[in-house]
Design brief:
The protein is mainly beta. The protein is built from 1 helix and 6 strands; from the N terminus they run E-E-E-E-H-E-E.
Length: 87
């Protein structure tokens, strides 16, 4: 899958984000994997890219405002418990 990662934090004009190909992850215990169509970044993500915030791990992929595509089925871990929407 395609992802943008913070390679070397710095000013946006120094292009701290790089587009890379990464393996599609498998869901862990109690997790769900959904197909994301687009993902936005917020100002906090930009602080991470610009080096104002220290990343928790190298090559961090910023963004948490995702839009999924409901036409695709998601993947779940073997012990995933289905719950009602919103719980």
């Amino acid at each position: 899958m395609d992802a943008w990662v913070v390679t070397h934090p710095g000013p946006i004009l120094s292009r701290p984000l790089r587009q890379v190909r990464v393996p599609v992850p498998s869901p862990g215990p109690g997790e769900v994997l959904v197909r994301v169509e687009v993902c936005a970044v917020c100002r906090t993500d930009l602080h991470l890219a610009e080096g104002d915030l220290r990343p928790r791990r190298p090559r961090t992929t910023p963004g948490h405002e995702a839009v999924e595509n409901n036409d695709f089925k998601c993947s779940t871990s073997p012990n995933f418990e289905r719950r009602k929407q919103g719980t």
